[in-house]
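From the thread on structure requests for the teaching lab: each student submitted one protein with a one-line request. Submission from student K.M.:

"Model Kinesin-like protein KIF19 from Danio rerio, tokens only."
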Amino acid sequence: MKDLPGEWMDHQLTVALRIRPLNEAEIEEGATIVAHKIDNQMVVLMDPCEDSDNVLRAHRSREKTYMFDLAFDYTATQEDVYVATTKNLIDGVIAGYNATVFAYGPTGAGKTHTMLGLDSEPGIYIRTLNDLFRAIEDSTEDLDCSVYMSYIEIYNEMIRDLLNPSSGYLELREDGKGEIRIAGITEFSTCNAKEIMALLTKGNKQRTQESTAANKTSSRSHAILQVTVKQKSRVKDINEEVRVGKLFMVDLAGTERASQTQNRGKRMKEGAHINRSLLALANCINALSEKGGKGAQFVNYRDSKLTRLLKDALGGNSRTVMITHISPASSNFEESRNTLVYADKAKNIRTKVKRNLMNVSYHLAQYTRIIADLRSEIERL
Ligand code: ADP
Ligand code: MG
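Reply posted by the TA:
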């Protein structure tokens, strides 16, 4: 990584695909595996068709291959996925770059498993925070570092604080620099991994979940864990913020269509809202991928809260990784195909990244230190 302040660097969105194992329900219904990983980048999706015995089987003659930056299947551990997708973003965040990791895919495909995971198999959230704290502890730089976390959901185009659900709905505000902020959000600052996992698990239970036909514990909301690393100079009198790195980790709502979940009434209305955010996201992905990275001036981020919040992640100042999830089962073939087509488009998205250095005091602090060092050297002579 080049480390020059203020210099814009091109970055291509990294797209990973994770195919989860067949689940019990799929095995019970006699589903076959139609999505296979061929190597670390290539996957194949076979179009299932009914044979004379009315059983859906994958047919090699009707298959399509897709290439991604990374491909994982049922053999991949949580650690494997974390190391390949997210671990290498951490140094950048500490150096003042923004980064975003988002989990994309239909309900039940494994997004929450990848991001939050289980106590016994923690996901990206906790692994990232653990490594982030360790890296800060090991840092030899003369800077005071603090880490803030917030955890929100977007549900029906309304923002709720998952760490403080009683605070009602929160509003997005644009600050003087054009950056989007969430007014009144709770930020917590702790380095204790156990405490964080407990907070996140508790927060996750606050997520709006109701059954749909697609999945019993379907998550109809987008959850966003934001981690901000702020650093200040330790040099006396120059106690100013010198750089800020932001990391978004996003667990999106299911991308399935309302018709496939047989949503009715309230669910249907809610579906429309979810679709508004996901539709806006899809529109942004379409527009950005067509541009081939030639700037994002015609992309409409304003259509939904999700895209307003993810504006930087998609077309601005962020290193971004999209982890796409699919089920391997023949019964989910249509959803998997739609998901792969989107992920394939997202590969074309480019962002531009730059270190977020707040002001000149960092350099001033460095010069002050150099002068002090020189002085003591002269005194020793
Ligand atoms: P989503 O968040 O996309 O709706 P979940 O992450 O909740 O899906 O996954 C649905 C179910 O499948 C959960 O019970 C989860 O534990 C399980 N699951 C998902 N991915 C995996 C995986 N890679 N290995 C084992 N179990 C998984
Ligand atoms: Mg989920």
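TA comment: Residues 111-112, 219, 251 surround magnesium ion (ligand 2) (CB under 6 Å). The first strand starts at residue 9 and ends at 12.
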